[in-house]
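Q: How would the structure tokens look for this protein?
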Amino acid sequence: MILAWHNVNWVTIRLYSYDLYDAENFSVLFYLPGHHHPLTENRSGQWACNLEQPSRLIYKPIIPDELVQSEEQIDLVQLVELSVIEITDYHDKKIKR
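A: Here is the predicted structure in token form.
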């Protein structure tokens, strides 16, 4: 898989980057260490994997133009490139009273 890194710390994600680089497409991400999963709500279209708790590696597929313009549903096998967005803890931190 082709990776595009954007302002992330290479040392922190070195091991996961090897897994992502070796992945054929998005369909195999579910089987990699780190609990790769698609996100929802305000992060719809993005994916995450667990790093050192509570940090997550956030990335998104790079969808080829021919798939964007198609009216058919995109299959994960068709997604072979990703862009790393950030490393963050995106969970809501509610204060208990």
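The mean pLDDT is 80.

Helices lie at 14-22, 65-68.

Upvote if useful.
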